[in-house]
Amino acid sequence: MVKSIKAIRTVIMCVTFILLCLLVYGFYAVPDELYCIADKRDSVNEIYTITYGKKISSSGQRNIGQSEKYEAEVSLLNVIPVKSSSVTVKSRDYVEVSGELFGLRLFTEGVMIVGTDEVDTEMGSVSPAKSAGLQKGDVICSVNGIKVTTSQQVSEIFGKAGSSPMTLVYKRGNKYYSISFSLAYSTSEGKYKAGLWIRDSAAGIGTMTFYDVSTGMFASLGHGVCDVDTGEILPLSDGDIVSAYINGCYKGKSGKAGELCGVFNPEVKGILMCNCETGVYGKAKEINAEMLMPVATKSEVKTGKAQIISTVDKDGPEYYDIEITKVTEASSQNKNMVIKITDSKLIEKTGGIVQGMSGSPIIQDNMLVGAVTHVFVSDPTQGYAIFAETMLEKARSISQQESLSAAS
After folding, report:
1. Is 358 a catalytic residue?
2. Is position 374 annotated as part of the catalytic site?
Protein backbone atom coordinates (compact mmCIF):
# COMPACT_ATOMS: atom_id res chain seq x y z
CA MET A 1 0.00 0.00 0.00
CA VAL A 2 2.80 2.37 0.99
CA LYS A 3 4.65 1.53 -2.24
CA SER A 4 1.53 2.25 -4.28
CA ILE A 5 1.08 5.66 -2.63
CA LYS A 6 4.74 6.50 -3.29
CA ALA A 7 4.38 5.44 -6.91
CA ILE A 8 1.25 7.59 -7.37
CA ARG A 9 2.97 10.51 -5.65
CA THR A 10 5.97 10.14 -7.97
CA VAL A 11 3.74 10.07 -11.05
CA ILE A 12 1.87 13.18 -9.85
CA MET A 13 5.15 15.00 -9.19
CA CYS A 14 6.46 14.06 -12.65
CA VAL A 15 3.26 15.17 -14.36
CA THR A 16 3.26 18.43 -12.36
CA PHE A 17 6.88 19.05 -13.26
CA ILE A 18 6.20 18.41 -16.95
CA LEU A 19 3.18 20.73 -16.93
CA LEU A 20 5.20 23.42 -15.14
CA CYS A 21 7.96 23.11 -17.75
CA LEU A 22 5.40 23.37 -20.56
CA LEU A 23 3.88 26.45 -18.93
CA VAL A 24 7.25 28.17 -18.60
CA TYR A 25 8.26 27.13 -22.11
CA GLY A 26 4.95 28.30 -23.56
CA PHE A 27 5.17 31.68 -21.83
CA TYR A 28 8.55 32.44 -23.42
CA ALA A 29 8.27 30.45 -26.68
CA VAL A 30 4.80 31.58 -27.79
CA PRO A 31 5.20 35.09 -29.26
CA ASP A 32 3.18 38.08 -28.05
CA GLU A 33 1.86 38.48 -31.62
CA LEU A 34 0.59 35.38 -33.41
CA TYR A 35 -0.27 34.91 -37.07
CA CYS A 36 -2.44 32.17 -38.51
CA ILE A 37 -4.61 31.23 -41.48
CA ALA A 38 -8.39 31.38 -41.10
CA ASP A 39 -8.85 27.65 -41.66
CA LYS A 40 -6.20 26.86 -39.01
CA ARG A 41 -7.00 29.48 -36.43
CA ASP A 42 -7.64 27.52 -33.26
CA SER A 43 -4.21 26.27 -32.28
CA VAL A 44 -0.58 27.32 -32.10
CA ASN A 45 0.47 23.67 -32.30
CA GLU A 46 -0.67 20.33 -30.84
CA ILE A 47 -0.18 21.54 -27.24
CA TYR A 48 -1.13 25.22 -27.11
CA THR A 49 -4.57 26.49 -28.15
CA ILE A 50 -6.06 29.96 -28.73
CA THR A 51 -9.21 31.47 -27.22
CA TYR A 52 -10.32 34.56 -29.13
CA GLY A 53 -11.47 37.76 -27.47
CA LYS A 54 -12.26 41.25 -28.74
CA LYS A 55 -11.46 42.18 -32.34
CA ILE A 56 -8.76 44.88 -32.40
CA SER A 57 -8.63 45.78 -36.10
CA SER A 58 -9.14 44.56 -39.66
CA SER A 59 -7.39 45.35 -42.94
CA GLY A 60 -7.17 44.38 -46.59
CA GLN A 61 -9.82 43.79 -49.17
CA ARG A 62 -12.12 40.83 -49.53
CA ASN A 63 -10.09 37.87 -50.83
CA ILE A 64 -6.98 40.05 -51.22
CA GLY A 65 -4.83 39.80 -48.13
CA GLN A 66 -7.81 40.28 -45.79
CA SER A 67 -6.82 40.00 -42.12
CA GLU A 68 -8.34 40.57 -38.69
CA LYS A 69 -6.53 41.12 -35.40
CA TYR A 70 -7.92 39.83 -32.08
CA GLU A 71 -7.08 39.82 -28.42
CA ALA A 72 -6.39 36.23 -27.42
CA GLU A 73 -5.58 33.91 -24.56
CA VAL A 74 -3.16 31.04 -25.10
CA SER A 75 -3.76 27.94 -22.98
CA LEU A 76 -2.01 24.65 -22.40
CA LEU A 77 -4.01 21.60 -23.54
CA ASN A 78 -6.99 23.97 -23.86
CA VAL A 79 -7.24 24.06 -20.02
CA ILE A 80 -4.39 25.86 -18.26
CA PRO A 81 -3.89 29.60 -19.12
CA VAL A 82 -0.38 30.40 -20.38
CA LYS A 83 -0.36 34.05 -21.49
CA SER A 84 -2.28 36.85 -23.14
CA SER A 85 -1.41 37.59 -26.74
CA SER A 86 -2.80 39.05 -29.95
CA VAL A 87 -3.47 37.03 -33.07
CA THR A 88 -3.80 38.16 -36.67
CA VAL A 89 -6.03 35.86 -38.72
CA LYS A 90 -5.34 36.02 -42.44
CA SER A 91 -7.76 34.70 -45.03
CA ARG A 92 -6.56 31.74 -47.09
CA ASP A 93 -5.28 32.84 -50.51
CA TYR A 94 -6.25 31.00 -53.70
CA VAL A 95 -4.71 31.25 -57.17
CA GLU A 96 -5.09 29.46 -60.48
CA VAL A 97 -2.07 27.19 -60.88
CA SER A 98 -0.55 26.89 -64.36
CA GLY A 99 2.59 25.00 -65.42
CA GLU A 100 2.12 26.22 -68.99
CA LEU A 101 5.15 27.11 -71.13
CA PHE A 102 5.36 30.73 -72.34
CA GLY A 103 7.67 32.99 -74.32
CA LEU A 104 9.11 36.13 -72.76
CA ARG A 105 10.34 39.29 -74.51
CA LEU A 106 11.98 41.86 -72.26
CA PHE A 107 13.30 45.34 -73.09
CA THR A 108 15.59 47.09 -70.66
CA GLU A 109 15.43 50.49 -69.01
CA GLY A 110 18.27 52.06 -70.96
CA VAL A 111 21.04 49.83 -72.33
CA MET A 112 23.22 47.60 -70.19
CA ILE A 113 27.00 47.53 -70.48
CA VAL A 114 27.91 43.85 -70.84
CA GLY A 115 31.60 44.37 -71.53
CA THR A 116 34.35 46.91 -72.14
CA ASP A 117 37.13 46.93 -74.68
CA GLU A 118 40.30 48.86 -75.45
CA VAL A 119 40.72 51.10 -78.49
CA ASP A 120 44.05 51.28 -80.33
CA THR A 121 45.09 54.93 -80.73
CA GLU A 122 48.22 56.81 -81.72
CA MET A 123 49.05 57.00 -78.01
CA GLY A 124 48.57 53.25 -77.52
CA SER A 125 45.62 51.22 -76.25
CA VAL A 126 43.08 53.13 -74.15
CA SER A 127 39.75 52.28 -72.56
CA PRO A 128 37.22 55.15 -72.75
CA ALA A 129 34.86 53.22 -70.45
CA LYS A 130 37.45 52.72 -67.70
CA SER A 131 38.65 56.31 -68.00
CA ALA A 132 35.07 57.50 -67.40
CA GLY A 133 34.54 55.08 -64.52
CA LEU A 134 31.99 52.88 -66.32
CA GLN A 135 31.73 49.22 -65.37
CA LYS A 136 30.20 46.02 -66.64
CA GLY A 137 26.59 45.92 -65.43
CA ASP A 138 26.02 49.70 -65.52
CA VAL A 139 22.91 50.84 -67.41
CA ILE A 140 23.20 53.87 -69.70
CA CYS A 141 19.94 55.83 -69.40
CA SER A 142 20.60 58.99 -71.44
CA VAL A 143 23.23 60.60 -73.65
CA ASN A 144 23.36 64.41 -73.88
CA GLY A 145 19.91 64.58 -72.29
CA ILE A 146 18.39 62.14 -74.81
CA LYS A 147 16.78 59.09 -73.23
CA VAL A 148 18.12 55.90 -74.79
CA THR A 149 16.35 52.53 -74.82
CA THR A 150 18.07 50.63 -77.65
CA SER A 151 21.62 49.78 -78.66
CA GLN A 152 20.91 51.30 -82.07
CA GLN A 153 20.08 54.68 -80.52
CA VAL A 154 23.35 54.74 -78.60
CA SER A 155 25.33 53.72 -81.69
CA GLU A 156 23.75 56.49 -83.76
CA ILE A 157 24.51 59.16 -81.12
CA PHE A 158 28.07 57.93 -80.68
CA GLY A 159 28.51 57.87 -84.46
CA LYS A 160 27.78 61.60 -84.70
CA ALA A 161 29.77 62.66 -81.63
CA GLY A 162 33.30 62.38 -83.00
CA SER A 163 35.80 63.84 -80.53
CA SER A 164 33.20 65.97 -78.71
CA PRO A 165 32.66 64.99 -75.06
CA MET A 166 29.19 63.74 -74.15
CA THR A 167 27.20 63.71 -70.93
CA LEU A 168 26.12 60.21 -69.93
CA VAL A 169 23.62 59.41 -67.19
CA TYR A 170 23.92 55.83 -66.03
CA LYS A 171 22.48 53.68 -63.28
CA ARG A 172 24.48 51.45 -60.97
CA GLY A 173 22.41 49.53 -58.47
CA ASN A 174 19.71 51.97 -57.36
CA LYS A 175 21.74 55.14 -57.87
CA TYR A 176 22.10 57.40 -60.92
CA TYR A 177 25.34 59.11 -61.93
CA SER A 178 26.22 61.76 -64.53
CA ILE A 179 29.65 61.76 -66.20
CA SER A 180 31.52 63.26 -69.13
CA PHE A 181 32.37 60.62 -71.74
CA SER A 182 34.60 60.89 -74.82
CA LEU A 183 35.22 58.42 -77.61
CA ALA A 184 38.72 57.39 -78.71
CA TYR A 185 39.95 57.40 -82.33
CA SER A 186 40.89 53.92 -83.54
CA THR A 187 43.86 54.09 -85.91
CA SER A 188 43.25 50.59 -87.25
CA GLU A 189 39.55 51.17 -88.05
CA GLY A 190 39.76 54.86 -88.86
CA LYS A 191 36.81 55.94 -86.67
CA TYR A 192 35.88 56.98 -83.15
CA LYS A 193 34.92 54.14 -80.81
CA ALA A 194 33.48 53.86 -77.28
CA GLY A 195 35.00 50.52 -76.34
CA LEU A 196 31.64 49.35 -75.00
CA TRP A 197 29.57 46.23 -75.52
CA ILE A 198 25.91 46.94 -74.79
CA ARG A 199 22.59 45.06 -74.77
CA ASP A 200 19.00 46.28 -74.74
CA SER A 201 16.73 43.22 -74.74
CA ALA A 202 16.34 39.55 -73.89
CA ALA A 203 14.05 36.72 -74.92
CA GLY A 204 13.49 33.17 -73.77
CA ILE A 205 11.00 30.64 -72.51
CA GLY A 206 9.85 29.80 -69.01
CA THR A 207 7.01 28.29 -67.03
CA MET A 208 3.99 30.15 -65.73
CA THR A 209 3.51 29.57 -61.99
CA PHE A 210 0.07 31.03 -61.27
CA TYR A 211 -2.58 33.57 -62.18
CA ASP A 212 -4.16 35.65 -59.40
CA VAL A 213 -7.80 36.14 -60.37
CA SER A 214 -8.35 38.84 -57.74
CA THR A 215 -5.74 41.17 -59.27
CA GLY A 216 -5.25 39.91 -62.82
CA MET A 217 -1.55 39.43 -62.08
CA PHE A 218 0.55 36.47 -63.21
CA ALA A 219 3.77 35.23 -61.61
CA SER A 220 6.45 33.16 -63.30
CA LEU A 221 10.05 31.87 -63.23
CA GLY A 222 10.66 32.38 -59.49
CA HIS A 223 13.86 34.26 -60.32
CA GLY A 224 14.77 37.32 -62.34
CA VAL A 225 15.87 37.38 -65.99
CA CYS A 226 19.59 38.12 -65.89
CA ASP A 227 22.06 39.21 -68.54
CA VAL A 228 24.06 36.22 -69.73
CA ASP A 229 27.35 38.14 -69.58
CA THR A 230 27.06 40.21 -66.41
CA GLY A 231 24.76 37.98 -64.36
CA GLU A 232 22.88 41.14 -63.33
CA ILE A 233 19.06 41.28 -63.35
CA LEU A 234 18.01 43.18 -66.47
CA PRO A 235 16.27 46.48 -65.56
CA LEU A 236 12.80 46.26 -67.12
CA SER A 237 11.46 49.04 -69.31
CA ASP A 238 8.67 47.06 -70.95
CA GLY A 239 8.01 43.66 -72.42
CA ASP A 240 5.39 41.03 -73.00
CA ILE A 241 4.63 37.33 -72.86
CA VAL A 242 3.44 35.13 -75.72
CA SER A 243 2.37 31.52 -75.99
CA ALA A 244 5.05 29.02 -76.96
CA TYR A 245 5.35 25.36 -77.78
CA ILE A 246 8.10 22.79 -77.30
CA ASN A 247 10.10 21.63 -80.32
CA GLY A 248 12.89 19.81 -78.52
CA CYS A 249 14.96 19.33 -75.36
CA TYR A 250 18.64 19.06 -74.55
CA LYS A 251 18.84 16.68 -71.60
CA GLY A 252 20.73 17.81 -68.53
CA LYS A 253 23.74 15.88 -67.28
CA SER A 254 26.31 16.31 -64.54
CA GLY A 255 28.37 19.42 -65.26
CA LYS A 256 26.04 20.79 -67.95
CA ALA A 257 22.51 22.14 -67.59
CA GLY A 258 19.88 20.98 -70.08
CA GLU A 259 17.45 23.22 -71.91
CA LEU A 260 13.94 23.17 -73.34
CA CYS A 261 13.69 24.47 -76.89
CA GLY A 262 10.56 26.45 -77.70
CA VAL A 263 9.00 28.37 -80.57
CA PHE A 264 7.13 31.64 -79.98
CA ASN A 265 3.57 32.29 -81.07
CA PRO A 266 3.25 36.00 -82.07
CA GLU A 267 -0.01 36.51 -80.16
CA VAL A 268 0.65 38.65 -77.06
CA LYS A 269 -0.95 37.21 -73.90
CA GLY A 270 0.18 39.73 -71.30
CA ILE A 271 2.49 42.60 -70.41
CA LEU A 272 5.51 42.55 -68.11
CA MET A 273 5.54 44.86 -65.10
CA CYS A 274 8.42 43.65 -62.95
CA ASN A 275 11.63 41.64 -63.33
CA CYS A 276 13.17 41.00 -59.91
CA GLU A 277 14.88 38.40 -57.76
CA THR A 278 11.64 36.53 -56.98
CA GLY A 279 10.39 36.27 -60.56
CA VAL A 280 8.78 37.96 -63.54
CA TYR A 281 5.34 39.50 -62.99
CA GLY A 282 2.72 41.24 -65.08
CA LYS A 283 -0.88 41.60 -66.18
CA ALA A 284 -2.34 38.84 -68.31
CA LYS A 285 -5.11 38.86 -70.87
CA GLU A 286 -5.57 35.12 -70.62
CA ILE A 287 -3.59 32.37 -68.91
CA ASN A 288 -4.14 28.63 -69.27
CA ALA A 289 -4.61 28.09 -65.56
CA GLU A 290 -7.84 26.46 -64.52
CA MET A 291 -6.87 24.75 -61.27
CA LEU A 292 -7.92 26.96 -58.37
CA MET A 293 -5.71 25.99 -55.46
CA PRO A 294 -4.91 27.27 -51.96
CA VAL A 295 -1.49 28.86 -51.38
CA ALA A 296 0.49 27.41 -48.49
CA THR A 297 2.15 29.70 -45.99
CA LYS A 298 5.89 29.35 -45.51
CA SER A 299 5.35 27.55 -42.20
CA GLU A 300 3.15 24.93 -43.87
CA VAL A 301 5.82 23.79 -46.31
CA LYS A 302 7.61 20.65 -45.13
CA THR A 303 10.11 18.08 -46.33
CA GLY A 304 8.69 15.02 -48.02
CA LYS A 305 6.89 13.98 -51.17
CA ALA A 306 5.46 16.57 -53.55
CA GLN A 307 4.83 17.13 -57.26
CA ILE A 308 5.71 19.72 -59.88
CA ILE A 309 3.63 20.74 -62.89
CA SER A 310 5.79 21.24 -65.98
CA THR A 311 5.49 21.36 -69.75
CA VAL A 312 8.41 19.44 -71.27
CA ASP A 313 6.84 18.11 -74.47
CA LYS A 314 3.88 18.60 -76.82
CA ASP A 315 1.50 16.95 -74.30
CA GLY A 316 1.35 20.15 -72.23
CA PRO A 317 1.46 20.52 -68.42
CA GLU A 318 1.85 17.26 -66.50
CA TYR A 319 2.42 16.27 -62.87
CA TYR A 320 5.81 14.78 -61.97
CA ASP A 321 6.91 13.35 -58.60
CA ILE A 322 9.58 15.10 -56.56
CA GLU A 323 10.80 15.20 -52.97
CA ILE A 324 11.38 18.34 -50.93
CA THR A 325 14.60 17.52 -49.09
CA LYS A 326 15.19 20.83 -47.28
CA VAL A 327 13.14 23.87 -46.26
CA THR A 328 14.62 27.10 -44.96
CA GLU A 329 13.49 30.72 -44.64
CA ALA A 330 17.01 31.93 -43.90
CA SER A 331 18.29 31.41 -47.44
CA SER A 332 18.07 33.92 -50.32
CA GLN A 333 14.67 35.08 -51.57
CA ASN A 334 14.44 32.40 -54.26
CA LYS A 335 16.29 29.47 -52.69
CA ASN A 336 13.91 28.46 -49.89
CA MET A 337 13.74 24.76 -50.70
CA VAL A 338 15.97 22.05 -52.06
CA ILE A 339 14.05 19.62 -54.29
CA LYS A 340 14.92 16.34 -55.94
CA ILE A 341 13.25 14.89 -59.04
CA THR A 342 12.17 11.30 -58.32
CA ASP A 343 9.93 10.74 -61.35
CA SER A 344 11.66 8.32 -63.75
CA LYS A 345 9.45 9.52 -66.63
CA LEU A 346 10.67 13.11 -66.26
CA ILE A 347 14.30 12.05 -65.79
CA GLU A 348 14.04 10.02 -68.99
CA LYS A 349 12.66 13.03 -70.88
CA THR A 350 14.90 15.82 -69.57
CA GLY A 351 17.53 14.36 -67.25
CA GLY A 352 15.96 16.34 -64.38
CA ILE A 353 15.54 20.11 -64.05
CA VAL A 354 16.43 22.02 -67.22
CA GLN A 355 16.32 25.65 -68.37
CA GLY A 356 12.74 26.55 -69.24
CA MET A 357 11.30 24.67 -66.25
CA SER A 358 11.87 27.65 -63.93
CA GLY A 359 8.52 28.65 -62.47
CA SER A 360 7.08 25.12 -62.48
CA PRO A 361 4.50 25.03 -59.64
CA ILE A 362 5.23 22.73 -56.68
CA ILE A 363 2.19 21.02 -55.15
CA GLN A 364 2.14 19.44 -51.68
CA ASP A 365 -0.93 18.37 -49.68
CA ASN A 366 -3.16 19.79 -52.44
CA MET A 367 -1.67 23.27 -51.94
CA LEU A 368 0.65 25.41 -54.05
CA VAL A 369 3.82 25.60 -51.94
CA GLY A 370 6.41 26.98 -54.34
CA ALA A 371 8.05 27.10 -57.75
CA VAL A 372 11.23 25.63 -59.25
CA THR A 373 14.00 28.24 -59.65
CA HIS A 374 17.46 26.72 -60.18
CA VAL A 375 19.16 23.46 -61.09
CA PHE A 376 22.27 22.01 -59.48
CA VAL A 377 24.69 21.79 -62.41
CA SER A 378 26.55 18.97 -60.64
CA ASP A 379 23.31 16.97 -60.34
CA PRO A 380 20.40 18.01 -62.63
CA THR A 381 17.94 15.89 -60.64
CA GLN A 382 18.25 18.45 -57.82
CA GLY A 383 17.66 22.18 -57.55
CA TYR A 384 16.24 25.11 -55.60
CA ALA A 385 12.70 26.41 -55.25
CA ILE A 386 10.99 29.54 -53.93
CA PHE A 387 7.98 29.84 -51.59
CA ALA A 388 4.70 30.47 -53.43
CA GLU A 389 3.67 32.84 -50.65
CA THR A 390 6.67 35.05 -51.45
CA MET A 391 5.68 35.25 -55.13
CA LEU A 392 2.04 36.01 -54.31
CA GLU A 393 3.01 38.78 -51.87
CA LYS A 394 5.19 40.35 -54.58
CA ALA A 395 2.48 40.07 -57.26
CA ARG A 396 -0.09 41.76 -55.03
CA SER A 397 2.37 44.44 -53.99
CA ILE A 398 2.97 45.31 -57.65
CA SER A 399 -0.78 45.40 -58.29
CA GLN A 400 -1.32 47.67 -55.29
CA GLN A 401 1.43 50.05 -56.43
CA GLU A 402 -0.15 50.20 -59.89
CA SER A 403 -3.55 51.05 -58.34
CA LEU A 404 -2.03 53.82 -56.23
CA SER A 405 -0.21 55.26 -59.25
CA ALA A 406 -3.41 55.22 -61.30
CA ALA A 407 -5.32 56.98 -58.52
CA SER A 408 -2.75 59.74 -58.02
Report:
1. yes
2. no
